[in-house]
Amino acid sequence: MSAERKRSLSIAGHRTSVSLEDAFWEALKEIAAGEGRSLSVLIAEIDTARGDINLSAALRLHALAHYRKLAGERS
Hints:
The protein is α+β, with helices and mostly antiparallel strands. It is built from 3 helices and 2 strands. It has a two-stranded antiparallel sheet with strand order 1-2.
């Protein structure tokens, strides 16, 4: 498993940093591209809907849910 990579982002007008493993960054890029939107827009939407969990966890859970849904569709 790859080490976490920290990236600086601007969400809703404020700067923040998010640390995720490379595999999650790649998964989120694929999800965003597949939905025809930018990674920034996808992250902002996840941020808005995340409730009380931290952003890194919300991003990981979003990627997991996306690929679980795809796996279920293939079964």
